[in-house]
């Protein structure tokens, strides 16, 4: 409905004196400029076409009222205004003139008084009243009202009232006065940046504050009640209802004025007060966030109410003394309120909560509020009262308007406006309540409101019961989505941010980023999708409440977009849950943090695991709610087409995540086993369960007979785990919560018998379990009758572990089906393991000789010797590769009947070059052309040209006599290496129980000299005089212990002996024995070391070594102390020799070669065979020197040059005569070239955090 007439005529600016003629002040400026025209012309100065405004303003002194008057008359906007039903042209309101003055003096106020806000208008009001008092302008009704910053009164200039006034007739007299607050300092020395000595200098903050406080506004005379201000005769002529109506209208106006004043107080007292308070209540950034959170858009609310108050004042002025229409103003105001009030009222609970939290935690803020409460403008009301004023005032509008309506005649057109205004205000309150509900995000009492709580009873009565139920379910969809999104927000508020900001850190900083990634993963992506969908749902709810047609569109769109995020998050959840459980079990600080966060009100008593799990049940909840909506939807509704599509998308998402969830659960199960399977004290078996590719193939229960052999001691129940690399027999221990276990590598596992007849458990006799078969003939069950129902019947399964601690194991399944299943799974696992190992092997066999070296089957006490007619060579004992000066790549192989040399990888080229007996060791000094051979405990040196001449016609070296280096003493072994840049040969000979060592150094000059005439010959045909090719480097030294080997380190040597590893400095022969044995805590380890034979010592990093014994390995630091808490690394076999090819160590058992990574000790490959032995371990040959590892150990930088030779008994070929004997397969181990870095063969990737294994809590294994 249109308004009966406009509230007030619009402003229509007209051409006043300021637009028709030059202003008084401009004329005065022009007179001053004329005095200097000639001077400017002499300087060649040309006046611009338009005078710059700043040049005019520089002669204006706003401290003079006459100057302000000229400016005001020129700039104040004129228009047509109605007062008392009479239109006045070229008029203006009090607000117009105050606005004009405020614009003029704003710059001076900022410079003199530091007033920066345009809302501080008291000085402008005082200047306007001063102009009014001197009749510069007048009130059109000459009512004598004091000018106010409002639109109630209308004013005009005297000059504007006179029609046809001449353009050149200026006002004869201007108002005169001095505006003291705008004056400058009287001191000539007062300039910017300098401290002024004048006490009342306006630039001084103290003086400015005093002067500002002195500018208190003139108290407005209290306005009389409407009845008191009316003419008694007119009052008596009005009906009683109209008198009451007018009184209510004026009371509404009065309340609106007080309300706007309260909103002004919010800005002046609280918002500005917080910014100016000294000391600062909080940091600048925090203060800005606090103001936005608490006060929101309250200033926008104030502007709307100012416009409402202004329009009521205009209506009151236009229709004075009786206001005829008021409802149309409120109807228009309701439309404006709709943009700001719902936002503010909806945010109010959060604002109140924020104020409460700040009061509890910020003492300075509490002091600030106490000061504000004592301020006169606050009327002793607190901040909470002021921020709730808009919400309370909004609820009063329907009541006040209804009171006006009750006193309005039905024939009055205003009654229709009032009815519409009341309904609009009620709807606005309902929308505001809906905003409050939405902003609550499911928290507090407001967040628990239901659909019927937000719908008026009269509206509910118009909705059918089935539709009301449908709307309630739609409401529940939105409500539960709010709770879900809020929970996702709380994950960051309660957990992520506190963890990141904790000091000291709750999670170690080196694990912080990975832990947060593992636990919360991509939950931020889920939050973004659901926040976006919730915003769309809220908009639909605000636009269509209480009767929402459909939610299908935003949900359908979100379901299509969030698929990828859920496809990543759901399968990852088992890993996140495990990380949380593991951290809480091992980190008391984290557990305390989670308990404290759970007690927070916003947590709703949910712990971190429940929050992380929230996305999974949420998808299921969508299905239930959408199906419920579909059941209550009319048949012709479009939801019957869209909702089934949404349900299909969600169901398909659930099915698509199942494989990933299953894989993640298995991975977590592996991690749990890795944490709970414990070692024997001081031992470590790294089964690589944390490898990303590791799988658990089968688990189940198997039985074993009592170890004592007596039935009454009870059968043991084993929980058996079949991984893709190990078979683990475990025995759970309920008391300590850990599991004792015995792992069997699948590479060493053989399936012996799974077809033996079932047996019956009962009273029995002694039986064996290990290293033999069970004598259970008396308990063998004949026939199948009753087997299925007899719980005492068990089915034997026999396997063999081909390891040091292995043998035959007979375990029992409780049913035939279980035995068959175990057989199938074991066959599957061993077959898969063979394929994987073949694909991921780190070394492969490269033959050197397959049919050259033949060993006879020994039938008597004497083995046949080699001859020209016999092919028997005896046992191969050593080898060494080397290159000659002419570039030939050769290999020397020593055996019981001499030394063979030939081209590498060409077994047909192997020829016997030395006829020596019992060759046990050989080495090559390539830089000197010397070939060393230890045969029958004598050490000989040959010039390589004498053995394999580079040219057949060259006899210079072939005639040279080899030299014997050890004299008459038997040599047990020798070692070749480099120490301090010098090549040395050290050999050991026994003297009683002592080991005596001699250190030789080759003499380059003597080696290349022409051979002298040999002297006498001994029984070997070699010269008996001292060797000329070598000289003694140091005097002999001895060790009071049996020595097995000697290793060259960087600056020292390591002697492997019965005591362990003797580290010696050849410069002074001082030595130290490792590992250290002085610590009483290491006594068990010391006894173990004494009982085992040392085989090798290898550097793992700059400050760590791996000591290899025949049964285990031990990591030690540079001082010989154990460096790792994991204890020893147990070998699978009994090592007879150890070789070194960085970063792998190769352990030689007669049945297999065991290859492990030196950094982790992890088993990476097993090469099976028969009668395996190491021939060359990388020392004393042509292999490049081993580089020193970096601080982080070996980075899998495997050299592709072979460093290890070995031999094994070859299996007879089909049709080959077994009676002749068996050939020895001589081969070298060549590193493979991986297609990718074998992360699974070493340690887990650096981008994934794996929890540490549990400490050894169990005293011993069941084996």
Could you give a quick summary of the protein structure above?
The chain has 1263 residues and is of the alpha+beta class. Helices cover 39% and strands 21% of the residues. The strands form ten sheets. Strands 5-10-9-8-7 form a five-stranded mixed sheet.
Brief descriptors of the model:
single chain; 1263 residues; alpha+beta; five-stranded mixed sheet; 34 helices; elongated
Secondary structure layout:
Blueprint: H1 17-20, H2 24-34, H3 37-42, H4 53-57, H5 65-75, E1 79-83, E2 86-93, H6 94-113, H7 122-133, E3 137-139, E4 154-157, H8 158-161, H9 205-214, H10 226-229, H11 232-237, H12 240-276, H13 284-295, H14 298-318, H15 327-361, H16 363-373, H17 383-387, H18 389-406, H19 414-440, H20 444-447, H21 457-460, H22 465-501, H23 509-520, H24 523-544, H25 552-561, H26 563-586, H27 588-598, H28 608-613, H29 615-631, H30 639-676, E5 677-678, E6 683-684, E7 696-704, E8 716-723, E9 726-733, E10 738-745, E11 749-753, E12 759-760, E13 793-801, E14 807-813, H31 816-840, E15 843-855, E16 876-883, E17 889-895, E18 898-903, E19 911-914, E20 919-925, E21 930-935, E22 938-943, H32 944-947, E23 963-964, E24 971-979, E25 982-991, E26 994-1002, H33 1004-1008, E27 1030-1039, E28 1043-1048, E29 1053-1057, E30 1060-1065, E31 1070-1074, H34 1083-1091, E32 1094-1101, E33 1104-1109, E34 1112-1117, E35 1128-1130, E36 1137-1141, E37 1144-1148, E38 1152-1157, E39 1163-1168, E40 1173-1176, E41 1204-1209, E42 1222-1231
Parallel strand pairs: 5-10, 6-35
Antiparallel strand pairs: 1-2, 2-4, 3-4, 7-8, 8-9, 9-10, 11-13, 12-13, 13-14, 15-42, 16-17, 17-18, 18-19, 20-21, 21-22, 22-23, 24-25, 25-26, 26-27, 28-29, 29-30, 30-31, 32-33, 33-34, 34-35, 36-37, 37-38, 38-39, 40-41, 41-42
